[in-house]
Amino acid sequence: MTPFVERTTNRPATRTVNAEGGDAYTMPKDVELYGAVATFLFQDKFYEKSDDRINRIRTLASELCAKNDEEFVGQLAVYSREQMHLRSVSVALAIELAKLHSGDNLVQKVLNRVVARPDEIMEALAYYEMINGKIKPLSKQVQKGLASAFNKFDEYGFAKYNRDGNITLRDALFLVHPKPEDEKNQLLFDKIANDSLETPQTWETQISKSGQDAKTPEEKEAAKLKAWGDMIDSGKMGYMAILRNLRNFLEAGVSHDHMAKVCARLADEKSVLKSKQFPFRFLSAYNEIKQLTSPHAAMVIDALEEAIRASAKNVSGFDYNTRVLIANDVSGSMGGTISKHSKIRSMDVGLILGMILRHNCKSVVTGVFGEQYATLLTPSGNILQNTENMKVPNVGHSTNGHLVLRAHEGERDEFDKVFLITDTQLWNNSGFYSWGGNGGGGDTFRKAWHDYKRNVAPNAKLYIVDVAGHGNTPISIMDKDVYYVAGWSDKIFDVLDAIENGSGAVEEIRKIEL
What we know:
It is a single chain. The chain is an alpha/beta fold. Helices cover 49% and strands 9% of the residues. It is built from 24 helices and nine strands. The protein has a six-stranded mixed sheet. A three-stranded antiparallel sheet has the order 1-2-8, with no helix packed on it. Helix 1 (29-38) packs parallel to helix 3 (70-82), helix 5 runs parallel beside helix 7 (140-150) and helix 17 packs antiparallel against helix 18 (297-311). The two termini are 12 Å apart.
């Protein structure tokens, strides 16, 4: 493993232009790979198609392996799965590593860590076939890693994810040839081979079966309502299943007592932390429920607010003596959804992270920027409601991030920490840069930051919170007092704690033992 080079301010910054032609700076390859992985769901982004993103990840991983930094690639795969709860990209990165590296058991160890659900075995094999053009011969380290993973799951888990596809669970068994750890696993593997796994009793199967014998629509609805109630009473529905079915519960007319149980589960701090939900999942549920006229909708919204507050409890470092500015990018490029099947936009992801952060700050100013910049008063209590309120000002579709700093420089507002939550594609729409492109006039975010530091707050620190991972930033992250964090998970706040202790995202990833 290449020794980690400590952060320094004298490394040269490479100037470039971003997707809008605005002033931008490249990042070290390990930081760029971290940003690209932490903000990727294998779906198209506003500025970048998913094929382009995976090709960039592949290129960056290859460049790091060429410099004998393959361990970082493996550490990042594990970090993105275990800490940031990203499934597909973690598996893909592990398989990419298998193509780039051999000679030891690194790939085996990484794959065994990133495969946390049975279906990820098939996903790993499908990705392996895609990038290699064939599935056989299977890399020895891939085979060993997936063989180890086979012994991690029980019959219920395998049966739940035993679905049709290009590579089935049975196909995977015969490709990987796992050695059973005990007699129980041998019997389980035999069932997979014989296609004789017991049908799992999931909430989906129970609801699907309900009302099959009903003779009228009314009887069918009554049977479905009873099935929902039975599932709630059983306590067998997972946290995410409950979160995703809140609207179904209310539209089905689930009783007050059942909804009280649901809300108690939603708001339970231990359940929230164990569920490892992205913060935007709570916002997605909130947006569904606020449209309903059910008498229980308000109770559910209160429970969702409690849940998101519980997920925010571990954020620290922002007492009354720490003056904080949180500026959220709500420009046009932040309006794209994070996946084809989601209504959640990059803007929503950024805003809810900003409002979680705001909830833990005692001395704070919050604002949004696009073509203009506007500040908003946000009480600390309701994170989800604050997130919605932050969308109210119409600040235009350009991305004039420099106006944030110019406004507070003019007011002589001295902040200790400035958070810019953005897709990083800032540009000035007042004219044209002298070096070309359509990025705007001569004022840039970097110039505005240096002026703000010099004229108002010499000890201020800037945190670029990247929710898109396009590979450049509006200011060099090697500049003094400039830090970079990427992702959609509340785990980014752990990185902020690490920064307080002289570390950073990449440094924390490099601490992972494989």
